[in-house]
Specification:
With 305 residues, this protein is mainly α. Helix content is 78%, strand content 0%. The chain is built from twelve helices and no strands.
Length: 305
């Protein structure tokens, strides 16, 4: 994983992959390779094989950390976005190839169970909190801007389902329940596309690291990165341990919590026009530090009781 990211970083530094091309390659990974991998992996998984208990503990930990940051920083748009940065993982571009390499297909099934509801749960929660925070700020400032909270939340839920990540997971699971088998003429191309996802996604992470300035936001980005990369997985591990969870499900949930800040957080900071520079720097810093913090977490997690 580290070598692939390093190759991307060098390619970006040398100008072999331009910023304009990065977006096109990202679209290729996100819109083509990702659905192929997700659908094919879940197309043989039956619902009774899925374990939602560790996923539930993951979200309990996320809610606790999110709520704690709101209590600490106040009920504002800025606090809501930064709390999302501390709890929203890059489960796709980094988590999927990492778990595939380290824990195989069994680990991917556990991760995809989380991914199927990850954005839906956390982004819908963040939308509700942000809309309420905006309404509160408008009331305090005397503005009377009407915001349709219900319509905004329903839109967030719809977008969380009709999306290139959860949709192929859901479709793959539905296909698996039919008992049918993907024809070889279709399965082979899906396999090749899925195999291409991991290396290309990690190389793109390295390229992206060369294109985002950190500047004066380094201190704040380091603080958020500590919460995201170390405090959040520690909280997930503690909750799972307290409920007696162990084995691969526990390992995958802790590693997923230790992943760097996901890029969706930046879209929220843009939409609500708050902490954009800090969030951008945090995505970069947490990804760079993830090379070390993920290694540490993955080395320690086998020793959990």
């Amino acid at each position: 994983m580290v070598l692939l990211i390093a190759i991307g970083f060098i390619a970006g530094r040398l100008g072999w992959v331009r910023a304009e091309a990065t977006k096109d390659l990202s679209n290729l990974v996100f819109m083509v390779l990702t659905p192929a991998l997700l659908f094919r992996t879940m197309s043989t998984v039956h619902v009774e094989q899925l374990n939602f208990k560790p996923v539930a503990m993951y979200f309990v930990a996320a809610f606790l950390l999110y709520g704690g940051m709101l209590l600490w920083q106040g009920f504002t748009r800025r606090a809501a976005v930064l709390a999302l940065a501390a709890t929203f993982s890059n489960t796709l571009a980094i988590g999927t190839p990492l778990v595939a390499l380290a824990y195989g297909e069994a680990g991917l099934v556990t991760l995809f169970t989380l991914i199927s509801v990850h954005a839906l749960v956390l982004l819908t929660m963040a939308t509700v909190v942000l809309e309420l925070a905006v309404a509160r700020e408008d009331a305090i400032s005397g503005q009377d801007a009407e915001r349709h909270l219900v319509r905004t939340v329903l839109g967030a839920m719809r977008n969380g389902i009709l999306h290139p990540v959860p949709l192929p997971i859901i479709v793959g699971l539905l296909f698996a329940q039919t008992g049918l088998v993907i024809p070889a003429v279709v399965d082979r191309p899906l396999l090749l596309l899925g195999n291409a996802f991991g290396p290309l996604a990690l190389v793109l992470v390295g390229v992206t690291l060369t294109q985002v300035p950190v500047g004066p936001n380094l201190k704040g980005a380091l603080g958020l990165s500590f919460l995201k990369n170390l405090a959040f997985p520690a909280l997930v591990a503690a909750l799972c341990w307290a409920l007696g969870l162990s084995g691969l499900p526990l390992t995958v949930m802790v590693v997923a919590a230790a992943l760097p800040v996901g890029a969706n957080v930046f879209m929220f900071s843009q939409r609500y026009e708050v902490a954009q520079d800090l969030v951008t720097a945090s995505v970069l810093v947490s990804t760079a530090l993830g090379l070390f913090t993920l290694t540490l977490v993955m080395a320690l997690v086998p020793y959990l009781p």
